[in-house]
Design brief:
Elements (H helix, E strand, L loop, with lengths): L7 E4 L1 H4 L2 H12 L4 E3 L2 H14 L8 H10 L7 H8 L10 H9 L4 E3 L8 H4 L5 E3 L1 H11 L1 H14 L7 H10 L3 H9 L5
Parallel strand pairs: 1-2, 1-3, 3-4
Helix pairs in contact: 2-9, 5-6, 8-9, 8-11, 10-11
């Protein structure tokens, strides 16, 4: 059977938009804790949203996008597969149908999204897909492989543009981005990051 034998997470645009959340997810994915997927449409969404909030970034997000693609070479769910499935799916918000279609086409085990309410369990579960918020998802990965997760967060902290930031500053930045339990975990392992 084609595909990745590892647990696969489809990343929604809302978790790729904030750099701290995207970096945390990508850091754990590149360590092999899970496989990750998204579509070019999801890329367009997070980039458009970020540019709307930060006009100074207009035309400057290509490097970030390309770095994400390079970090996860098997990231792409083909648009043709997603589009074919989308026609037969319904969600309360029609603008989210493409995400569910991508998850199905990409053989994802879950959709990681901050908008869990937009993906009702009764609609999603028949497809064998779980919907999980990014904080819970990251903590679940930590629980499965704590040493690998801690090492990934340590490398993430080392890449920060403000190298003088302390481990507490790092945890605070994740907490400000909605990763509250992840930040608590980092504080409990502060001497390791």
């Amino acid at each position: 059977m084609a595909g990745n034998a590892r647990y696969t997470a489809l990343l929604d645009a809302c978790v790729l938009y904030p750099i701290a959340v995207a970096d945390a997810l990508m850091s754990l994915a590149t360590e092999g804790l899970f496989a990750t997927k998204w579509t070019t449409l999801i890329e367009i969404e997070w980039m458009r949203s970020l540019q709307a909030d930060r006009p100074d970034l207009e035309g400057r997000l290509g490097t970030r996008r390309d770095s994400m693609r390079d970090a996860v070479p098997d990231w792409e769910v083909p648009e043709v597969a997603r589009k074919a499935l989308a026609k037969s799916l319904q969600l309360p918000d029609p603008d989210d149908v493409h995400v569910l279609a991508a998850a199905i086409a990409g053989h994802a085990d879950c959709i990681v999204t901050a908008n869990t309410r937009d993906f009702p369990k009764e609609v999603i579960s028949p497809y064998g897909i779980e919907v999980v918020d990014p904080d819970t998802f990251l903590v679940n990965q930590w629980d499965l492989e704590p040493l690998v997760a801690i090492a990934a967060f340590k490398r993430m902290r080392a890449r920060r543009q403000k190298p003088e930031s302390t481990p507490e500053d790092f945890a605070d930045a994740l907490e400000r981005n909605g990763l509250i339990v992840t930040a608590e975990r980092l504080r409990s392992a502060i001497e390791l990051i």
